[in-house]
Design goal:
Layout (H helix, E strand, L loop, with lengths): L1 E7 L5 H12 L2 E4 H10 L3 H10 L7 H13 L7 E5 L5 H13 L6 E6 L2 H15 L6 H24 L3 E5 L4 H15 L1
Parallel strand pairs: 1-3, 1-4, 2-3, 4-5
Helix pairs in contact: 1-8, 2-3, 4-5, 6-7
Bound molecules: BIS(adenosine)-5'-pentaphosphate and magnesium ion.
Length: 191
């Protein structure tokens, strides 16, 4: 059973690489950003609240996210070989909640993959995507805010997993295939 976390700054390639990992290892993809955007597009109560945070580049409250993940973890299809968490945990409180949640289910995190990409490249990727994505947070002002929030709130999550000896840094620059090969090497070494 693999329970992989893919982490890194906005635009580092979490979603792109998750799609490849899901296929290769038959995992369930849990992207908190995608789950929230679905709620927004369906104009649910949760979606309206989430949009007020996302469009400003802020994180949505921990409790909201933890409840969503807990439900999704329990809805895992029997035939999958585990999960890939994309964009979660993003705060220390979320990391602690995840570890507790997995422990209670006799599961454990395999590894946190930390995709490293320099700021200029992140901004370029997101501005380019913003030309077509329709995402309310893909504009320069909100991108800058997302990067600041990442440094302040999410970077400490890496230290948490370093202490657990479940941390791997991945160079996130290169072609999608090159990066995927780097990730595969790490996952295969943990199986
Ligand atoms: P989320 O949806 O997770 O957004 P993000 O972290 O800002 O990251 P992105 O999805 O923008 O980028 P990505 O790393 O997935 O990269 P991608 O593969 O798309 O979260 C959005 C918001 O939701 C948050 O700000 C927050 O408000 C809220 N939220 C979500 N989770 C939360 C949580 N746990 N707690 C609280 N709030 C939460 O790639 C980016 C672009 O680059 C694409 O166009 C892609 O085609 C391109 N690209 C990919 N790889 C390469 C490459 N190798 N070379 C060149 N271009 C590439
Ligand atoms: Mg994404």
């Amino acid at each position: 059973m693999l329970n992989i976390i893919i982490c890194g700054a906005p635009g580092c390639g979490k979603g792109t690489q998750s799609d490849l990992i899901v296929k290769k290892y038959n995992l369930k993809h849990l992207s908190t950003g995608d789950l929230l955007r679905k709620e927004i597009s369906e104009k649910t109560e949760l979606g309206v609240v989430a949009d007020s945070y996302i469009s400003q580049g802020n994180l949505v409250p921990d409790k909201m996210i933890i409840d969503i993940i807990e439900k999704a973890v329990d809805e895992q299809p029997l035939e999958s070989n585990g999960i890939i968490l994309d964009g979660f945990p993003r705060t220390l409180a979320q990391a602690e909640a995840l570890e507790e949640m997995l422990n209670e289910r006799n599961k454990k995190t395999t590894v946190l993959l930390d995709l490293k990409v320099d700021t200029d490249e992140l901004v370029n990727r997101l501005l380019k995507r913003g030309e077509t994505s329709g995402r309310s947070d893909d504009n320069l002002e909100t991108i800058k805010k997302r990067l600041d929030v990442f440094e302040e709130k999410t970077a400490p999550v890496s230290d948490f997993y370093k202490k657990l000896n479940k941390y791997a840094v991945i160079n996130g620059i290169g072609t999608v295939d090159e990066i995927s090969a780097r990730i595969t090497e790490v996952i295969d070494s943990k199986k």
